[in-house]
Write a structure and sequence with these properties.
The chain contains six helices and 35 strands. It starts with a strand and ends with a strand. About 50% of the residues are buried.
Length: about 725
């Protein structure tokens, strides 16, 4: 079963309650071995004529809540740390869930306990694999093919179509690209997923929405810890964290060192990552926090290969990748500040950030990109009674600007050769948004909002021997939304919305090559979509669920319509449709097997299912063909026996029952596959945890992800082989 929190809304007597899972995915409890749920937390809605509480009274309430938490902690073998008043700038998982569950659409919150202590947690697939609607497949090292509701299908390298954040600080560059190597799954206490237009508060302008990775503070339980993970293909990782609080001060820092030889040839890598923050509370209603994140990543790239090579010799790297010693190396430093001020009914968040990123990327050429991104944000949340009705208003501004010192050299065996191109690429993005939730009935809210995005892209070419590639373009885009949110009872929500999203093209979108039309980046249009969505989510004592149906009608989708030299050229399609089903369920099918009482043992079945129907809409070239790059059906399921002591074990499966196309002409597809795993471990929510995990036990050869092209042949090098049989183990101690 999942952890629970209590969300307050207004009822006839002033307060009505809705109990929801602290992880929006039904997998949370099953995926971890945690035997003991957290106690419920009750948060009152604003009461009419409520006086502003004194600071001392607020601190007393926080202390009382801490006492309740300790008293309700179950078995004596669970070590409960001393509690301190929580952070104002960083929400707990329960508080964050209460916030996002007021969204009338597809959202999810994944607690670290759902994956950190029971899997190797090497990539974001381990974090998000039980979130329906998210297709995340490892390629090599830490790199992943990520798509939400069919976002970014045209890109099998870097990231586009989903906005990534770390503590609200952008991971993506200012023109939209991102790299997964900067994400350390060991560093976070929870991850928030906002699908599509539900990411309004981050100013996200993409079909896929936004994902926010949140690190702990020194005020969280168990701020100190050490973990060791190791296993197949030379994987080894050492991670440590420490933190604490002293009066108004608190601090937290986590660091990891990781090495892997890799499953495929030429896929070895090394990384060092550190994240930390320091907070100061001027008062219970005023807190500021400073953040630091730094990464040093060195990774070889094995490359995409033909279908035959992927299925018959999956360890083999692409010959050209070896000859050119292709790599993706990243150095990053992020600095940021966030400040929160709380008034009677209003909370104000504001902050600034700066990011220095250096990409050293020998591929077909040696890409040497130096990024400087910076910006700030302000967000106001007002929750009060208006005329006896609850009203919740959110408004804010996000600014993300940046500059890329872009140089490309000839790649001579992984080293720089002659300079081939050079430019300064500048991006500016300013988004203003407002959203209002009006509870016209005690448990039903009408939600309306809009976002305005103004963005510019400017290139100053410094290498003119091949012609002047300079140019600039700008975009002004409105993205309105409207919806309904109904708290049916304490355990059940129903929602519906219609929203518009707009994705501004990056500098990488263009078309050039022999036999295809030349389209400069300044001629690429923004991708816009109107999405209709209806769904439900909830939790009962022995069952959890989420079900969302959506349909996105897209204009000018950024897709591969032309290709030259085997590379995809991304331009605008005319009209496309993305629609699907996102379904997750968890059920305790058996209880009281060997242990009876208030905390019985149980067998928990968890299933996450995604149905994707992505297609052209009467395209003049491709008709109503299916869009390539994502499976129509994707199933992830597990069965776990869970003992109240914290011991767990059980099998799992990943199943793609139907191959998917790798080209827009629908001539070449992947094969169906099913891979099986098994894991066992111990995690009672206390000081110690350990796991052993076996993956792809049958050593099945399969294709994990595919690049796409307009028209493929049987020898087109488009495919990333899945990893073979692997066993991992890990141990963690915290205090």
């Amino acid at each position: 079963m999942l952890r629970t929190s209590t969300l307050a809304g207004l009822g006839a007597s002033g307060v009505a309650f809705v109990t929801l899972a602290t992880c929006a995915t039904p997998a949370a409890m099953a995926q971890s071995g945690t035997a003991t749920p957290l106690p419920s937390v009750t948060i009152d809605a604003p009461a009419q004529h409520r006086a502003k509480p004194a600071r001392a009274a607020r601190v007393t309430r926080q202390s009382a809540q801490a006492v309740r938490t300790v008293r309700q902690a179950p078995a004596s073998h669970v070590v409960v740390p001393a509690t301190v008043p929580g952070s104002l700038t960083v929400a707990t998982a329960q508080q964050a869930l209460r916030e996002i569950q007021q969204t009338p659409g597809g959202v999810a919150l994944v607690s670290a306990d759902a994956y950190r202590n029971s899997t190797v947690s090497n990539t974001i697939k381990d974090v998000l694999e039980y979130v329906p609607g998210v297709f995340a497949q490892p390629k090599w090292g830490d790199d992943v093919r990520l798509s939400i509701r069919g976002s970014g299908l045209s890109r099998n390298f870097h990231l586009r179509g989903v906005q990534l954040y770390m503590d609200g600080i952008p991971i993506n560059t200012s023109d939209g690209y991102g790299d997964f190597q900067e994400i350390d799954p060991t560093a976070y206490k929870y991850v928030e997923v906002f699908k599509g237009g539900n990411a309004l508060r981050y100013g996200a302008n993409s079909l896929g929405g936004a994902i926010n990775f949140v690190t702990p503070t020194g005020r969280d339980p168990f701020p100190n810890g050490v973990s060791l993970d190791f296993g197949a293909f030379g994987f080894r990782r050492l991670q440590a964290n420490t933190g604490g609080s002293n009066g108004p001060w608190d601090g937290f820092v986590t660091a990891s060192v990781q090495d892997s030889d890799g499953f495929r040839d030429h896929s070895f890598g090394h990384s060092e990552r550190i994240s930390g923050n320091v907070g100061y509370q001027f008062s219970p209603d005023f807190e500021t926090r400073f953040y630091l994140n730094a990464n040093d990543v060195r990774q070889r790239i094995p490359g995409t290969v033909s279908k035959d090579s992927a299925l018959t010799s999956p360890e083999t790297a692409a010959p050209g990748n070896i000859a050119l010693d292709q790599q993706r190396n990243i150095d990053t430093v992020r600095l940021a500040n966030k400040t929160t001020v709380r008034f009677e009914n209003t909370t104000v968040d504001f902050g600034l950030f700066g990011i220095d990123r250096h990409l050293m990327h020998p591929i077909f050429q040696y890409l040497d990109y130096h990024y400087l991104d910076y910006g700030g944000f302000t967000r106001v949340t007002d929750d009060r009674l208006i005329g006896g009705f609850r009203n919740r208003l959110i408004a804010g501004v996000n600014v993300l600007d940046g500059r890329i010192d872009n140089q490309q050299f000839a790649n001579i065996g992984g080293q720089k050769g002659a300079l081939l191109s050079s430019s300064i690429d500048s991006s500016k993005n300013t988004s203003v948004y407002v959203e209002d939730s009006f509870y016209f009935l005690p448990t039903v809210a009408a939600v309306g909002g809009t976002q305005f995005l103004y963005a510019t892209r400017d290139r100053r070419d410094r290498f003119l021997s091949d012609g002047d590639q300079s140019g600039s373009t700008s975009f002004s885009l409105w993205s309105p939304k409207a919806g309904l949110l109904w708290d049916v009872d304490r355990t059940w929500q129903v929602y519906a919305n219609v929203s518009r999203s707009a994705e501004v093209p990056s500098f990488g979108e263009s078309s050039v090559g022999p036999g295809i039309p030349t389209i400069p980046f300044t001629s690429i249009l923004p991708q816009t979509a109107t999405t209709y969505e209806i769904g439900t989510r909830g939790k009962r004592p022995d069952a959890t669920w989420e079900l969302t149906l959506y349909r996105s009608q897209i204009k000018d989708e950024l897709l591969c319509l032309y290709s030259a030299f085997g590379n995809c050229n991304v331009t605008n399609a005319d009209r496309t449709v993305h629609q699907g089903i996102e379904a997750g369920a968890g059920v305790a099918v058996f209880k009281n097997i060997f242990v009876h009482g208030d905390q019985p043992d149980r067998i928990w079945v968890n299933v996450a299912y995604t149905y994707n129907d992505f297609r052209f809409d009467n395209d003049p070239v491709f008709g109503n063909n299916l869009l390539p790059g994502a499976p129509r059906h994707f199933v992830r399921a597990e069965v776990l026996y869970k003992h109240p002591s914290g011991f767990y074990f059980g099998p799992n499966v990943e199943w793609v029952p139907q191959g998917y196309y790798a080209d827009s002409a629908n001539t070449l597809s992947t094969n169906p596959y099913a891979i099986f795993g098994l894991k066992a471990g111990y995690d009672n929510g206390g000081k110690y945890s350990a796991y052993v995990e076996a993956r792809n036990i049958a050593n099945k050869a399969y294709i994990a992800s595919s690049a796409i092209i307009d028209r493929a042949t049987s020898t087109s090098p488009l495919f990333e082989p899945g990893t073979g049989r692997a066993v991992y183990a890990g141990f963690k101690v915290r205090w």
